[in-house]
Amino acid sequence: MIIEPRTRGFICLTSHPTGCAQNVQNQIDYIRQRPTENGPKNVLVIGASTGFGLASRITSAYGSKASTIGVFFEKPPTKGRPASPGWYNSAAFEKQAHKDGLYAKSINGDAFSNEIKTQTLELIKEDLGKIDMLIYSLASPVRTHPDTGERFKSVLKPIGDTFTNNTVDFHTGEVKEISIEPSSDDDIENTIAVMGGEDWQMWIDLLKSENVLAEDFKTVAYSYIGPSLTEAVYRKGTIGAAKDDLEATAFKITDSLKEINGKGYVSVNKALVTQASSAIPVIPLYISLLYKVMKEEGLHEGCIEQIERLFNERLYAEDLQLDDAGRIRIDDWEMRDDIQAKVLKLWQEATTETLPNIGDLEGYKNDFFNLFGFNVDGVNYDKDVDEIVAIPGLQ
Ligand code: NAI
Ligand code: NA
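That is the input. Now the predicted structure with sodium ion docked in place:
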């Protein structure tokens, strides 16, 4: 079929297998040139199909020939209905990895569930024995608690006061003010239940109790801080409360892994266009200004550049450069004073009329469509493609 983008609000309902495959290939090519010395060998990535998790899988596999197991929650294709992009990404990754003699298998299902955890554990035992790295890169709006069956929904709201600021509809380019009502108590707890550290800890507890974590095992989860502009709705909002919980969990994990000299870390990453971040109000306007400034300064990075730097200049360089709160910071370039000062100035000037010039709305849109395999350089979208694509190592 010929597949075209079909959007509804902040989501795109279709995705393109060839474009997704090209995105994956570009990331593989990037990492092939930048190997990791003493990198990981057996890696489990939770949230492995898109964004930072996919980049982590590719960096592990192609930076140090690691065997990778990927866990994700993606929609398979049916006749006439394309899969979600993470499905096509994973298919492309595994096809290439297998060609290159790399072990790569995947599990598609709810990572929060006991069932998927058990299935993953069995696969590790059978195929890898032990893992030396676990990347935790889930972004989900909901979580069903595996023990109680309770279903939690995460929300993006300020805590305390109504938040009012500008945002952009990146499809139309319209800059307008929005107000977001403050959260209730339940919202905070629910968001922590979904995006906080409990599930990460559950994974570690299970894998540790089953003795499949290697000596000197490392685990990393991803967090975000961002500028003062978005603080009320992000870092000091409900999602920030969940990130505080996630960050605290890293220390608990380290404590629980003393016997094997294991370490839990949080890496604070840069703001990037992903399916998760497009849905957060105010962030698209911030990102379009940030991209403009960082591209001008030659400092722009995507997920793969960020994770390559995390592995090669922090985690496996024995040079973590932790901040005061014990976190790895690969948002260092985004947060540079000169970058933030420029973004703040542009923020005050941003209107529907000025944004096309002062911001990188085009770059934002392009990255958004790229997430779904559209607008990818070198892909012929007029060519008929088979929407039914298999993931070769899917369990
Ligand atoms: P993403 O939406 O690209 O990836 C989410 C991944 O989680 C996908 O692989 C998806 O299949 C998987 N997933 C979602 N629900 C699942 C479930 N129930 N079971 C199994 N897999 C599931 O998101 P992105 O942006 O890569 O986010 C990953 C982490 O990075 C998040 O913790 C996010 O807060 C953090 N981060 C994101 C930043 C951004 O600007 N996008 C910046 C800094 C941190
Ligand atoms: Na991810």
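The mean pLDDT is 96.
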